[in-house]
Design a protein that fits this description.
The structure is a homodimer.
Chain A: H1 4-24, H2 30-46, E1 61-64, H3 70-79, H4 86-90, H5 120-139, E2 151-156, H6 157-161, H7 163-175, E3 180-186, E4 189-190, E5 193-194, H8 203-210, E6 213-217, H9 224-236, E7 242-247, H10 269-278, H11 291-321, H12 323-333, E8 355-356, H13 357-368, E9 375-379, H14 383-386, E10 395-396, E11 410-412, H15 417-430, E12 434-440, H16 448-456, E13 462-466, H17 484-489, E14 495-497, H18 502-514, E15 520-523, E16 528-529, H19 537-540, E17 545-548, E18 555-559, H20 564-576, E19 581-585, H21 589-593, H22 597-603, E20 610-617, E21 627-631, H23 640-646, H24 651-667
Parallel strand pairs in A: 1-2, 2-3, 3-7, 6-7, 9-11, 9-12, 10-11, 12-13, 13-15, 14-15, 18-19, 18-20, 20-21
Antiparallel strand pairs in A: 4-5, 8-16, 17-19
Helix pairs in contact in A: 1-2, 1-3, 1-10, 2-3, 2-9, 5-7, 5-15, 7-15, 11-12, 13-18, 15-16, 20-24
Protein name (chains A, B): Transketolase
Organism (chains A, B): Gigaspora margarita
Pfam families (chains A, B): Transket_pyr, Transketolase_C_1, Transketolase_N
């Protein structure tokens, strides 16, 4: 079952990992060495993929959840013929290299998801597995097993300690994801030392409790046949995800093997010499891959190319028999949107009844969900509050649950915000899917570790976040976001949208769906808002625009979401006093900042002071506003109208503040930036 | 074992809960009704506390982790004689009431921790239990069982789905916290519907895997004796935390009992009439508590007052026998710091060798840990990186682990950032303890749900966050914080400190420890920094100050942390060209904003443009700076010196940007806030 080439490949990975990390003078040699046997068996026996086309839809997915062990993954990609050269390996962890310190899916071909923050990869894999069963249930037909891939994960104990993986494991068990197979590298070592310092639970028993199939292998350093057989058995279990706990020795072969010393620092040169000798390698050779190993890599490529060619043939045949479905596969996996889908977005007039923006979001979903079958969404157990479930939605559930099928598109994530966010990254990574998920805006803080990876990885994930301010009311400050908008506005490559009314909600979805390479957070209200004169779907795409203009404005009132209509009402009060105010809507800072300076100056010209109003922290508004009306403390529990009064979010107070701003700037020509009309 | 008063009290809670939520027209009636039996048995048979002194150190702690059920807790506090009147109950969820929509420990007497965000209370309870065993091991002596309290939790399935509780449960099992008893209200209903939609794991088996003692009770609606006996059994298990899964009917007695309809909305008036009739109450009476129930409450008070009086006597006797320890208990539980502790803070001169601020933090801990025995800290498995372990530290572990004892003060939190943060809230809540915990600054995002509750609850928790920028280097953008400072600066009642050198690190700890009623995040570098001329421990307390001044400054360079020395070097380059620059250090925005306008204007006067430099998102700097040098994207993997060049954090680029700012403001007198010298 195993042969000399297996041993040779494994030892090549081990010695190369030692060289790669040593050359970088930074990194983690121990886990790549310890995981080499399981990784090799996985790739040589089980994984079908085509290095010449790393995006082939039906490839098996591999996730290295313990991303710090990425020397392993880079070495495998190199040996297996992916677009990663020996020079790239030599450039490990160097500036602008294709081999960064942790795997980044947008940087390195063949990497599915960005990992390293522990537990994320595991939870991404649950999303990847969900995507596969969904595509299979949606597209496979008798004789056409187009979507059959597995998702394989290697993870360490760190990943399994993290809450995000616990949530994801429970979800995967519930969903009976038989296509998910996790190899748990149990090396008993963490950064702090032996796992007995902090991690003494019975992991496999825990996974049994989640409804997983579990196996244990006592010698992951040498028992290649055992690894092979365990994965074989796991593949045969089709109604449960599988975890195989594999006992290994971290840094196996090093004089410090089995200790935390080999975890996060390069091995010493003399140690590397000894390791190479131990494994029958020439200690004078560095970055050495034997020809036999490269030959094995070529065979992997050939097998993968053949598999893809057969798959493409099958798809063509499928297209002739199932014309529409075949076209859908091609469209969705090339990230094309259906023609004219945006015509389905609802548009509103000021005479339409006031309505909560979360309800307007539901309206959008009701209009576009059938037009965009790649939209797959749900909520972290707040469906009735987030209003994320569209009328025709069907449940995404295992057939045997009796509650739905995998072809359903409404996901019950449970009370698991972090796993939802991370699983959405996996769903987006799979291809052909636009995932969205809902919770209260405040609880995006539970999933922020995953949200920032949506942004870093350029995944189009849509976060539908309702109850977006103190307007949430009675639930109180534990549930009222304050710092949240600042946090998301400061995050690169993510669009934080806070639409003010119906047209802007449609504009927010248009933005989120059109932006293929970045996630969006759409912040939505619990309370009703009127539809505003001058609001626009298209202008929302510019991030900011003049909602209402006047000649010779003395002040600009700007805001977002539920506070924009307060600004409009304040302008009316000011008008009664003969004071002229322009209104600027700013639904998305990032999109506005991307506009030309000329456009931005046309919105906020020299010489007119700006007052912002937003029922969230004022932090960050100084970018545009000379003075800001916002939250300087946590909110409180009470009916939202009372809270809006308590914290000054009324037309009257806004008008009053506007007059202060105008007065102030009559006498302050070049203000210090700390000297403001009022405390903010 | 049970008597008519038990039934009467339980039904009083149920009917009162219906009234309270109905009157508020908002809230959650179902869980209070379903949990009434277990809560009543807990308080009437097991909990010893003194409503007249809710802060008595040895009281049993009760945490309602499913905080949305807080009508239950408020009703109990009222009946049991805490400072909560019937008027307070009538004001449930109203603005400025003492009965907010979710429990807030700083608002309502008798509430230990702020709960509602699911899973937090559970994890707080682990911290409370850690605190008790620590105080017991530190202070108890033969014949003096001063610290003997238990921590009791009621939680729902939502809490147990959250990752934070999973992490905390694993930690509690590892630490063998026999003083922790959790009652799991298993009512099969979530907001979305039946738990079978998303939560089908075997919870008790999972807890067994964590090393917990588990029990199941089939009828939590009626089997009062069963509840009693199960808690008795749990108390007898002293080497494991306990969980008792209690099957209940949500909203029991309502026509919609057992469904999600009674979860989050008031019951209908006719339903409430029927419920009152069912439970033998007069349907015409609202907010009714029978005299017998108030009498039972009085007995609870008397029992608690007696217990505290006995405890106080015991403490006085202890003080005469163990004078120093007794004085320590009194000092620590009155939140007094030892005299002159701050004299131990290290101070530095510019001639001292450059060193990383994380190392300077270790220096502080080495100097103060023995002087401040209430400091109890650890790391989420990054001890060697965070440098959180002081020289004389002993391990906080169960005796039976062979690794330490509960009197140890160094906590191995494992790879569990969220549980660490939430447990620290529990440790702070217990009293007599100042908790600190370390991870990389980037991974505070994993624990943000708990961090914001440290702030809301006014808990002095110290977050020691290292590797605080792209200066982390090779680990790459998955580990490099960008948005993090903005997020924390926007969070009310939390001090985000980013010290620049040795004196400022000492100043940061001085700030964090002196601020009794707010948490601090101390951001620390991986890379070395020089000790700066003009830096000051005391000035750090002002949040911002002039580090180096010049006559007739043409520009102000301001920054924090590792970038401040770059500003200093840039000023030297500018000086060579005859350009005069003032340097302002801004280690803490919030503290600076609290200074007088006069002081702030003395630092940032009118007429001098300000350029900020910080290797984090520029978002928020517009508050002080006319232009900002910072991160506009994620970072990348590489040696930090190269990254600093790549992103422009060099004296040369800073000087160049400073000249652009000066030039720009020669011709722009009253700038629009969007028109800046360069893109930021």
């Amino acid at each position: 079952m195993t042969s000399p080439i297996d041993i040779l490949t494994i030892n090549t990975i081990r010695t190369l990992a030692a060289d790669v990390v040593r050359k970088a003078n930074s990194g983690h040699p121990g886990a790549p060495m310890g995981c080499a046997p399981m990784a090799h068996i996985l790739f040589s026996r089980f994984i079908t993929a085509n290095p010449a086309n790393p995006k082939w839809p039906n490839r098996d997915r591999f996730v290295l959840s313990n991303g710090h062990a990425c020397a392993l993954q880079y070495i495998l990609l190199h040996i297996l013929g992916y677009d990663l050269t020996m020079d790239d390996l030599i450039q490990f962890r160097q500036t602008d290299s294709r081999t960064p310190g942790h795997p980044e899916s947008h940087i390195t071909s063949g990497i599915e998801v960005s990992t390293g923050p522990l537990g994320q990869g595991f939870a991404n894999a649950v999303g990847l597995a969900m995507a596969q069963v969904h595509c299979a249930a949606t597209f496979n037909k008798p004789g056409y097993d187009l979507f059959t891939n597995h998702t394989y994960v290697i993870c360490g104990d760190g990943c399994l300690q993290e809450g995000v993986s616990c949530e994801a494991a429970s979800l995967a068990g519930h969903l009976k994801l038989g296509n998910l197979i996790v190899l748990y590298d149990d090396n008993y070592v963490t950064i702090d030392g032996h796992t007995n310092l902090s991690f003494t639970e019975d992991v496999l028993k825990r996974f049994e409790a989640y409804g997983w199939h579990t196996q244990y292998l006592a010698d992951g350093d040498h028992d290649l046949a055992g690894i092979h057989e365990a994965i074989e058995r796991a593949k045969k279990v089709t109604d449960k995800p599988s975890i195989i706990k594999i006992k290994t020795t971290i840094g196996v072969g090093s004089k410090n093997q089995g200790t935390e010393k080999v975890h996060g620092s390069p091995l010493q040169p003399d140690d590397i010499v000894a390791i190479k000798k131990l494994y029958g390698f020439d200690p004078e050779k560095f970055f050495h891959v034997p020809d036999e190993v490269y030959n094995y890599g070529k065979q992997f490529c050939e097998k993968g190319a053949k598999a893809e060619a057969e798959w493409n043939q099958l798809l063509e045949k499928y297209c002739s028999e199932y014309h529409d479905l075949g076209a859908e596969i091609k469209r969705r996996f090339s990230s094309k949107l259906p023609d004219n889908w945006e015509n389905h977005l609802p548009r509103y007039n000021p005479s339409d009844s006031p309505v909560a923006t979360r309800k307007l979001s539901e309206n959008v979903l009701n209009k576009i969900a059938d037009v965009l079958p790649e939209l797959i969404g749900g909520s972290a157990d707040l469906t009735g509050s987030n209003l994320t479930r569209w009328k025709t939605a069907e449940e995404f559930q295992a057939d045997s649950s009796g509650l739905g099928t995998y072809s359903g598109r409404y996901v019950r994530y449970g009370v698991r915000e972090h796993a939802m966010s991370a699983a959405m990254n996996g769903l987006a990574s799979y291809g052909g899917i636009i995932p969205f998920g809902g919770t209260f805006l405040n609880f995006i803080s539970y999933g922020l570790g995953a949200v920032r990876l949506s942004a870093l990885s350029s995944f189009r994930v849509i976060y539908v976040m309702t109850h977006d301010s103190i307007g949430l009311g009675e639930d109180g400050p534990t549930h009222q976001p304050i710092e949240t908008a600042a946090s998301l506005r400061a995050l690169p490559n993510l669009l934080f949208l806070r639409p003010a009314d119906g047209n802007e909600v449609s504009g927010a979805y248009l933005t989120a769906i059109k932006n293929h390479e970045r996630p969006s957070v759409i912040a939505l209200s619990r309370q009703n808002v009127p539809h505003l004169e001058g609001s626009s779907v298209e202008n929302t795409l510019r991030g900011g625009y003049i909602l209402k203009d006047v000649d010779c404005a003395q002040i600009i009132l700007t805001g977002t979401g539920t506070e924009l209509s307060i600004a409009v009402d304040a302008a009316k009060l000011l008008e009664n006093e003969g004071i002229k105010a322009r209104i600027v809507s700013l639904p998305c800072f990032d999109l506005f900042d991307e506009q030309s300076l000329e456009y931005r100056l046309s919105v906020f010209p020299d010489g007119i002071p700006v007052l912002s109003i937003e029922a969230l922290s004022t932090f960050g508004w100084s970018k545009y506003a000379h003075a800001s009306l916002g939250m300087k403390s946590f909110g409180s529990s009470g009916p939202y109208k009372e809270l809006y009064k308590k914290y000054g979010f009324t037309p009257e107070n806004t008008a009053d503040k506007a007059k202060q701003v105008i007065e102030f700037y009559k006498v302050h020509q070049v203000p210090s930036l700390v000297n403001r009309p009022f405390k903010q």
